[in-house]
């Protein structure tokens, strides 16, 4: 419970305690997430988030449900409660009632509808709530030490809990006892709210024209399948499972101090022991059924083997073709690419293999999500870099060609 929840609880107790005093009849209306024109809390918070570094992120799975209540429905609920308290006070006095728009919606879909209506980007990238909480703690600690004691982050642990957890309420009691029903639909309430905050609309036209329902280029590059879900953090459990598996393999082969052959032998021994133990277990034990692994799990189809061999043969042939082109000396572009690749290898040689593997894994799980978040910026940078490399390659090709031609010509004169 945060400070606001504690304050609401205290106010609710005061209202209920006042019931029956000096002929006063009271009840409590528990409004779930009110919104509408004139809102100085929820919508401004969404706009501030849309302009911050969190603009493209969904905290949690994005499937958490919430109830929202349009401000006209809140006013209507107060009128209904007042009328019943004046006529049939005994049936409702001293009781709390939940007030909603009678619609359960995904919290992030609701936010996205308001943000898109105001010209801001719909968040798409999923971040685990636990990871965000860890980041908040680290940033808060660094901010308090380096900036000032009055450091106030945009997100707090209580906010992360609110935006990542399902929280719905049943307003059927209010409908039955005080005759409350929404007078404005949720969709109409969102439209009116967006129009009322037109002064906060984003003036960038490309955000209004861009279709954020289409898969990103990073997702298309990864094949829009399981690999994309893992590397773009769409499926948090699968991503963490892969990271944990890679870490265990990294520790097993590179940090254990054993040789590669010894680590491989021990791993095969461990897998063989697990498979053998699983095979000798009965089909049922202590009331639990144990599913046996069929032999088809260990079979490799002929088409897969053929495809793998064709891939290896293709890589080998392409390598030989590349070496032949370099040895003939006719293609300067290939020569420059080979020299550049060898120079890059030379730069990486001082680093240990374990460090390179660790950097590669970190880049693998961070590059694509950064590319999706900053797609336009990355593409501009790639375009500028490609243009610069192309000009440099053309310059080097021309200079090397003229230099070698001059050198050969002088050599012939000397002879």
From TrEMBL:
Regions that span the bilayer: 240-261, 267-288, 347-371
Statement: the UniProt record of this protein carries the keyword Repeat: no
Pfam families reported for this sequence: 3Beta_HSD, Reticulon
Topology class, membrane: Multi-pass membrane protein
Listed name of the protein: Reticulon-like protein
Listed GO CC annotations: endoplasmic reticulum membrane
Any one GO biological process: steroid biosynthetic process
Domain of life: Eukaryota
GO MF annotation list: oxidoreductase activity, acting on the CH-OH group of donors, NAD or NADP as acceptor
Species: Asparagus officinalis (Garden asparagus)
Keyword Thylakoid set for record: no
Ranges of residues in domain Reticulon: 227-412
Entry keyword set: Endoplasmic reticulum, Membrane, Transmembrane, Transmembrane helix
Location of the protein in the cell: Endoplasmic reticulum membrane
């Amino acid at each position: 419970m945060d400070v606001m929840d504690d304050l609401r609880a205290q106010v609710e107790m005061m209202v209920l305690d006042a019931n029956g005093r000096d002929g006063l009849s009271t009840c409590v209306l528990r409004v779930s997430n009110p919104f509408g024109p004139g809102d100085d809390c929820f919508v401004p918070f969404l706009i501030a988030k849309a302009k911050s570094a969190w603009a493209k992120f969904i905290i949690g799975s994005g499937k958490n449900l919430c109830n929202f209540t349009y401000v006209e429905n809140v006013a209507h609920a107060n009128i209904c409660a007042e009328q019943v308290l004046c006529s049939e006070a005994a049936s409702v006095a001293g009781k709390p009632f939940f007030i909603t728009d009678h619609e359960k919606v995904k919290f992030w879909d609701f936010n996205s509808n308001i943000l898109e209506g105001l010209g801001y980007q719909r968040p798409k990238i999923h971040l685990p709530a636990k990871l965000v909480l860890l980041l908040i703690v680290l940033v808060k600690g660094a901010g308090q030490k380096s900036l000032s004691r009055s450091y106030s982050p945009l997100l707090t642990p209580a906010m992360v809990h609110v935006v990542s957890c399902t929280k719905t309420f049943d307003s059927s009691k209010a409908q039955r006892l005080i005759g409350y029903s929404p007078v404005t639909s949720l969709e109409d309430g969102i439209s009116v709210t967006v129009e009322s905050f037109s002064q906060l609309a984003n003036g960038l036209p490309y955000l209004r024209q861009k279709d954020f329902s289409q898969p990103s280029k990073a997702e298309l590059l990864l094949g829009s399948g399981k690999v994309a879900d893992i590397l773009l953090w769409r499926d948090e459990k699968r991503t963490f499972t892969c990271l944990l598996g890679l870490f265990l393999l990294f520790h097993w082969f590179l940090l254990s101090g054993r040789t590669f052959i010894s680590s491989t032998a021990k791993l095969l021994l461990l897998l063989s022991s697990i498979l053998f133990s699983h095979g000798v277990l009965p089909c049922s034990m202590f009331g639990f059924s144990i599913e046996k692994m069929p032999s088809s799990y260990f079979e490799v189809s002929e088409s897969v083997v053929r495809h793998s061999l064709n891939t290896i043969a293709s890589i080998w042939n392409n390598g030989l073709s590349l070496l032949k082109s370099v040895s003939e000396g006719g293609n300067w572009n290939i020569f420059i690419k080979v020299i550049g690749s060898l120079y890059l290898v030379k730069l990486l040689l001082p680093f240990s293999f374990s460090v390179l593997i660790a950097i590669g894994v970190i880049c693998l799980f961070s590059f694509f999500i950064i590319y999706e978040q900053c797609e336009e910026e990355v593409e501009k940078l790639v375009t500028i870099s490609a243009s610069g490399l192309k000009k440099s390659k053309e310059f080097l090709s021309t200079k090397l060609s003229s230099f070698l031609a001059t050198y050969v010509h002088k050599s012939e004169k000397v002879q």
